[in-house]
Design brief:
Length: 298
Amino acid sequence: MPHLNPHCWICGSENVQLEKPSNIASPLTSKSFSITDSHYGVTAAIYRCPACHFLQCSDLAETLPFYENLVDPDYEAGRKERSAQARRILELLRKHRPRGRLLDIGAGSGMLVEQAIHMGYEAEGVEPSAWLQAMALERNLPVRLGTFPLPGASSQYDIVTLIDVVEHVSDPVRLLQDIAGSLSKDGIAIIVTPDVGSVAARMFGWRWWHFRVAHVGYFNERTLLLALGRAGLDPIFVRRPVWFFSADYLWVRLHQYLPKFLRLPQPRFLKTLVIPVNLRDSLLIGCMRKPPTAGSAA
């Protein structure tokens, strides 16, 4: 199928070029977009911008209905490890903004919101999956159903977090512009996304674990900074985030890279172990609104 959006989602250049054909073998369902999906290397057709080299899945621009119907019990089963990830990000954030109103976009079942409340932030989230939002409500967490920006929601936040979300949307600059517009005068946004320019991505090629159906945009540091700049955001720091996984979760996924004859039965004790992992293949960028230029409105 020819790509629907012939322009680059970041710089607007025309005539993006096919880099990798689609290898999706069956009709897509919400399960294809699961957070814990492990079909690494299975993607829609990926196109490269000839100007900025951003990689995007132009044929898969409309994915919201898949997320609205998403159910992913394995994601919720990893709550302990994912909450540790959220807390590590918030500990970094606290050095810059120790308090304030926080919005988590793509909040899932409210893990970051929950940790932020424990740390003293006035936190809330927004999530398109009805199932995930229901999981958050079961824990009395303030996560609203829908996408950002929500009609009637407050337009001013001291902190906005966008953790592993921007790679899922087909209009990333618009999303980042909306975030910039929602920040208070000294507000800060935290953006986390996989880094397609990382050593791990280059080493594994199309089998890299972040090449997945759900990811429709692939950033490196240059293209993410370009998108932030076009959205009116200035970076204030760049980090490589640490993720936390249960050992059995890692065991299953790492075995996919081994020949079948080398795959061993999973030891039971792995379920009790939590392992911090930093392969330096994700970007975490803190940013603020650009100061108004001379002659522009503040």
